[in-house]
Queue: 4 jobs
Job 1
Amino acid sequence: MLKQQLIDSLDFANKNQEVQGEIALSSMPRLWDVLADSNDCVESSREKISYVLRGFHDKNGRPMMEIEVEGSCQLRCQRCLEAIIYPLKMTSQLHLVDRCDWDEFSCEKEDADSIPANNQLDVIALLEDEILLNLPFAPMHVAGTCRSVMEGYLVEKEDQVKENPFAVLSGMKKR
Ligand SMILES: [Zn+2]
């Protein structure tokens, strides 16, 4: 498991810093519930996403952080419960708000997403938040392409064929 990576978010923005790297989805425990192979961490640890964090100031001089994530994950189809490969590709820009102003600020409506500035910002937790926010609420295969639905249909047909002789037999035994 990857070590916790902490950054000072305001300092990060003020110095226009940038970090990038790769991280295994298995090191984000809050994602386990939504990933199809969550009970197989060894398997899912092969699934890595790449990320870039950039600190900067926007045109109004506000400290900002941009988060870029790219990769793919396996979600569970809400119709057939089979895995779906879901491409992860997103960019978020977060406004860093001073903690002292946060309570007052968070009551106001803002166009950009905002997070409280944190001198010990957990990079992995932040990436996890952003991924969770961007995942579909109820992922599904394209209609009619669910595998188990099609397999279920085939099994049903085979069972019907197999059941017929038994039905005849059991009918004979009763006599
Ligand atoms: Zn499906």
Job 2
Amino acid sequence: MNRAVALLEPAPAGCGPALPAAGAPRPLRRAIYETVRAGGRVSRAEVAKALDVSPASVTALTSDLIAAGHLLETEGPAPAPARRGRPPVALAVRPGAARVAGLRMSDESWSAVALDMGGAVLGEARRAAPPGRMDADTVEEAAAALLADLGRAARVGPEGFASVGVGLPGMVDHPGGAVAWSPLLLRRDLPLADLLGRRLGAPVLLENDAQAATLAELWFGAGRFAADFAVVTIENGLGMGLVAGNRLTRGGGGLGLELGHTKVQLDGALCRCGRRGCLEAYVADYALAREAETALVGGSRAGAVGADLLDRLHAEAKAGHPAAASIFRRAGRYMALALSNVALLFDPAKIILSGERMRYDQLHSDEVIEEMRRLLIDSGRPPPPVEIHAWGGSVWARGAAALALQHVTEAATG
Ligand SMILES: [Zn+2]
């Protein structure tokens, strides 16, 4: 393996995109706040230089932000030993100005994380997912229970969260606050942001879960300093997010990019969206599990299920079980097809593969990457590098929490 396998590190200082979003002018007050947040501890002079504005205008607006309780003055980084004197005064985000929550819903477990305004994790919570497809009442009930757990873990009282971001699989209309379709939900076009907002007592922002994972990269991970990159996620489904010009791409309808439901085979395998031949019907957990049952237990339903079944399939494939190995080999070839299509369509500077299923290394082996390269047009330039982030835990929820941080920031800075 010549590609780095990295875990998402907590940002040493600051959070949020370090580069301004292209084509999205922002009020100077917000630009100042976001520059300070991205840098962690930043002097007024550095802010003025970064934004190419006069120090006087920065001084006036920072006084205003300090008075309103959004920024504070702190000690800057210590001067070099050769230089004497007191450390310079720096600005920092006031972490306790508000607290936000991020929830991630999936069909196995739900996770939640509480952040302060500086992006520090205050607490985490996790619950098993409600079984089967849910009606609106079940979603509200489960979300309220998880948020109550989170409040206890983070020592945040009832209604103490200024905003809640929610990531879930499916076609999520971010600006409209509705879920057009999700494998978790019984109903189509559910106005989930309003329903949850009333129940949880805070504004709720929705996002597709792969988009939330992409936001986690952009706010807290390898994407903070990157302008253009794609994130491909494998969990129970196959998702994708794209950052172009330092901002998350959402389609015209706010639905984002549904890589998992692009068609790779006419009249192919049945997908959980109800159509045939979708990419995820060949790569996602349920696709592998469908074949694993046949390969390992002769078609009977006895034995392991879900993640246990896949772990067993993975171990058998590693040990040379021919049918088990062929299942991963085929899934890996479809993965190569997916990655080459992403590279051809979007020309990203890099592709980040993320999600818990990255521990099945056959899905991103050197052979898979080599096959991806063979499927690309030989332009004479190197194909985009592929990085693996085998995240677990609360990272997807942190991406959802970034939505809430953004929402609170916009409200606070005009
Ligand atoms: Zn589909």
Job 3
Amino acid sequence: METVPEPDPEPEPEWIEAVATAYCSCEICCEEWALNRPDGIVYTASGAEAVQGVTIAADWSIYPPGTVLFVEDLGEMVVQDRGGAIQGQKIDVYFESHDDALQFGRQNVRFYIVND
Ligand SMILES: [Zn+2]
């Protein structure tokens, strides 16, 4: 009898456990940066426009801008922003509304790196 080789299992991604917080473009979240919104467009520190569901802030010495992280329950997010309090493995998730950011609050999440 011919044996069909089992397909190689997908390698288990290397999950990183981290704390996630949330922010929006308001003055409470961004302080003086909130005043710099030409035409109401929210630009991140990388120059990319902030988009809810995509934009996160991270420590650029670990996750440089453009790094794609798959965050459990959130999906693929792109490092586009940074912040003084965002150090180490911590990530900060962008929301369009301050209420949504508050609702997200502070959570333990896990993610893995999709690209470098
Ligand atoms: Zn806010």
Job 4
Amino acid sequence: MRFGMFGGQGIKVGRILGIPIRLDLSFFFVFALVVFLIATQIMPDAMDGLGGAERWLYGLVGGAVYFLSLLVHELAHSLMARRYGMEVSSITLFFFGGVSLIREDSQRPGQEFWIAVVGPLASLVLGAGFTFVALFALSDGTALRNIVFVLGVLNCILAAFNMLPGFPLDGGRVMRSLVWRLTGSRHRATRASARLGQLLGAAMIVYGIGGLLTEIAFFDMGFNSLWLALIGFLLMTQAAQGVKAAELERDLASLRVGELMLEPPVARTAEADLLVRVLAPSRAQLDQQDVFIVAEGGIAVGIASAVQILLLDEERYQSDRLRDIMLAADQVQPLQPDSGADEALQRLQKERTFVLPVVERGRLLGVVGLEQILKALGQGPPPRLDPSAGA
Ligand SMILES: [Zn+2]
């Protein structure tokens, strides 16, 4: 997982619509805090008539509904991404909110726009719904009404905060999609919106620290100052990665697959009938980066990688021929020598393969693997960042 500060996979708690839901360790800290705040701070007057156990029960239920609201927000992103054929690896709730890990970057500005905008829309609908119920369906002065109202306000804040125009916040992604549409360049759009994200992050840090260190009324947000400074820090870090990723993407798009690919004799040619164990008598000594062009009667028909051989179970290692394990050139859509390296990387990630054939006019010229591209790239785009403002 690429999520620097709160790295690690978190604890898997289940699946919704096939998407694994995970909780980062930091989630439990914030959950406890939210429960505590609701039970002791949020509505002291309405809670007056309640006993201790009831207060904590309200805190627990309120906290749970709040985090379910976050989950709804993330599910909106994830389901929209899935509608566009993108694979969603997981949703993780963590310290500042949630993150949907979508395996691909958007291919068109329209996709980016809709995937980004549905999250805040979902929060807004929830926020309006809770507020409406609190104001018109529940009787005045009760603890229940107060907590539903607070949940409504929190969801509205969540929607508004995430629509701030700095990448990788949702609003930054919306902006990215608009700049992308206007300029036709994804990496330029990423860089512009990520620069704004850096600025926004810096402003939050200044404002948050101002609130913590000074008595000036303008900065005073109480407890939220610390929160804001932390979110600002995270936003700045992630936005800086976005700027870097955009620059890498620009470099990558300018590289042709033909310049990167391994050709014979670096990529060794081997006959399709050759037994795998004959080609690689000792798997321990196999170089993981090796790729083989598989030929039949002098004509290249497919490719195989050392990684594939390493992953074979012992039985198949003993009995398979290269033909059995190869990626046949006519079964995958090949890359052209003048395809961009960015396209090659996206296809490798999407098709979960280690190498792709490069073909020109029906002739297999060579292979391109993650290895060749990663040297030029470093890492993928940062994940979506969804702070749960002012929890
Ligand atoms: Zn979001």
